[in-house]
Amino acid sequence: MSEAPPPRFTPDRPASCHVVSPGEPVQRAIDAAPDGASLCLSPGTYPGPLQLSRRMVLWGPRDAVVRSTGKGTTVTLTGPGTRLLGLTIDGSGNRFDQVDAAVRVEAAEDAQVEGVRVVHSTFGIIVERSRRIAVRANEIVGNRQVTLGMRGDAIRLWETRDSVVEGNEVHDSRDVVIWFSPHNRVENNRIDGSRYGTHLMYSSDAVVARNRYVRDEVGVFVMYSRNVDVDHNLAAEEGQSAGMGLGLKESGNVHAHGNMFIHDSVGLYVDDSPFQPEDVDDFESNVFRLDGTGVIFHSTPHRTNFRSCSFRDNGAQVRVDGGGDALGVVWDGNDWDDYAGYDLNGDGVGDVPYTLRSLSADLLDAHPNLAFFAGAPTLALVEAAGRALPLFEPRTILRDPHPRMAPLALGGLDAD
After folding, report:
1. Could you tell me if residue 149 is inside a domain?
2. Model confidence over 157-168: pLDDT tens digits?
3. Does 96 reside within a domain?
4. Which one of 28, 75, 197, 410 has the fewest beta carbons within 10 angstroms of its own beta carbon?
5. Looking at 115-239, which runs of residues are DSSP E strands?
């Protein structure tokens, strides 16, 4: 698979195009252009709204700005093969019920929005009821002065399939959401200061790969979806009260490989997943570092595998809400910084299983208000007592029969 172009780039100017200068009516030029034509905007400001309803290219450099009148969507693409490239879209209407956006792609095929900068809009780029759409290498800047939940989504796919969201840069927006949209890819994006870095709902057969989620509420959340690959993503500083790197709810056949969950409140949160009785969730070669809790299961887990993952410097490694355990999970070949075993034969694998027991977790399950003391010396002393005094021995949460002695090498995760 080819690498996405870097954000903040201007796509190449079409080889031949009709030049439109500031002051000329752009919509009239669009309507007069023949099928397959290219229009190139010169630097300057142009009033919206604009509508591209057939196969054509509208290109501009970053300093060619299409500005909203303050009502409705600023640029709408409905034609097959329509391409919107390079320019800046400034603003949109402010109606959430109408989903006023900078760019809307509607009932289109093979359309492309690439290298566009979006500022001051309610919603960024909306794609609805379309196929084979590329939303690539755009920059979308939200309004950090507005409460997070009241911002519009940066990118939204709705009833859209066989499409790609790739190489985009999103700042201070609300969500990148893929809803009721199967067979899509979300790759190589950088999303920071938002709510959901990527939210899949009823969107099966998806790939979420090589994205960078930093200081969002949630990196990736997968709901009611099956056959999802979550590979080589970074979720860091997802540190709000409900912050998590990756969350699953009633989903299945989720394969998470080579991800890094760094300094999140929760690295991975699993709620009733896998959901279908024939599904299995696999987590392999993922890194959990400096998280409040590495993994939380909302209920007793099953049909789930953790192999070659790394758990180090977390407040708690694994927790099961409701007093359950994770003994039904396959834990094999993971590395744990609190492993107290040995490796006499020097094969890099502990000679005795890793066993996780936690008296403080038992107390937190029984008395949730004690979470106030998480990370404090009080609970640390409770944990030490649980290990030193058999009278207070807590329940066993998990066993890994082949714990790794050395931490998983970050360099092998393609983190750059």
Report:
1. yes
2. 999 999 999 999
3. yes
4. 28
5. 117-119, 123-128, 134-136, 139-141, 155-158, 163-166, 169-171, 175-179, 184-187, 190-192, 196-201, 206-209, 212-214, 218-223, 226-231, 234-236
